[in-house]
Amino acid sequence: MTESPDPAEAFEDLRPLLFSIAYRITSSVTESEDVVQDAWLRFERVADTVESPKSFLSTVVTRLAIDVLRSARQRRESYVGEWFPEPLLTDPYEDPERAAELADSVSMAALLLLERLSPLERAVFVLRDVFGFDFADVAAAVDRSEDACRQLASRARRHMAAGRSRFAVDRRERDELAGRFFGAFRDGDVDALRELLAADVHLVSDSGGRAPQWGAGIFGTDKVARVLVALIGPFRQIGGRLELHELNGEPGAIFRDRDGQVVNTWTLEILDGQVQAIRTVLNPDKLAHVGPVADAWAVLREAFGARGGPL
C-alpha cells in the first residue's frame, strides 16, 4: 500500500507554481500571496480526498485569482495616474529550459498587454500558453468546456500577438546595455544617456496619487536624459543609493534612502539596442513587499528643497 504524501509537503512543492500562476493573472505580489494562502486553507480541509493536489490547487488558485482580478479592475477605473503591476523581485517558479520565456511573461510590457484580455482569456492564456496545462485541466480550472477554452486561448493569442515581437531581445545584449545605462546614469553623463535612449523613449511613473509622479510622463531622448541627470545628483547627495536588481525579469533598480528604505523601483524596457521605456513604481502600497518603504515626499523635499523636482 502506497503511503499518501504529506499535504503540507505536497503544497510546498507546488507553491512556486501556484504563486506564479496567481501573479500572472493578478499582477499583484501581495494579492497572489493571499490567494496562495487561501488555497492552502481550502486544500488542508480536504487533502485526504484529493487525488491530484496539482489539479486541485491550480484550479482553486486560478478561480481565486480571477475573482481578485475582477475586483481589482473595478478599483483601477478610479486609479490616479498611470497603473503598473506590483514589481516582482524573483519568480519562484524555476524551469531552466524555459527561463527566458517565463521571464518574458512577467515583464512589465507583457503584464500590461495581458490587461487587455478579459479575466477568463487571461487565465486560459496563462495556464495554457505560459505553463503548458492541457485543455482538460484548463477547462476544469475555469469551469468552461474545452472548446470554449480553445476559443478563449485563440482570442488571447491574437490580442497578445501585436506586442509579442517587442519582447524578443538577446538577454546578454540587453543586460550589457542596461549596465551601460545605469553607469551613465550614476555618472550623470547626459551625452552617454542620449546615445542609449530611443528617440521616443518614455519615463513614466505609477504613484497612485500617494507619492510624487511625473504627470503623464516625460517623453523624448533629450528631455528624459536631462531629467535623469537632474535626479541622480541631489538623490546621491542626501545619501540615496541605487541597488541594481532584475525586476519582472527585466533589468531594473531599487532606489533606497540613506536608511535603506525603498523609495521606488525602476524597470527598463530594451529593444533594438536602446532603452524604450523606464517604468517606475512609487505607490507605497505596491512596494511593501520589497522592504520598508520611505516617505517619498520627504525624500523629494530633502533632495530638491524648495525647488521641487522629480523622483
From TrEMBL:
Start and end residues of each RNA polymerase sigma-70 region domain: 11-73
All copies of domain RNA polymerase sigma factor 70 region 4 type, residue ranges: 109-160
Keyword Transport set for record: no
Superkingdom of the organism of origin: Bacteria
Biological process according to GO: DNA-templated transcription initiation
One MF annotation (Gene Ontology) recorded for this entry: DNA binding
Family: Belongs to the sigma-70 factor family. ECF subfamily.
Self-association and partners: Interacts transiently with the RNA polymerase catalytic core formed by RpoA, RpoB, RpoC and RpoZ (2 alpha, 1 beta, 1 beta' and 1 omega subunit) to form the RNA polymerase holoenzyme that can initiate transcription.
Protein name: RNA polymerase subunit sigma-24
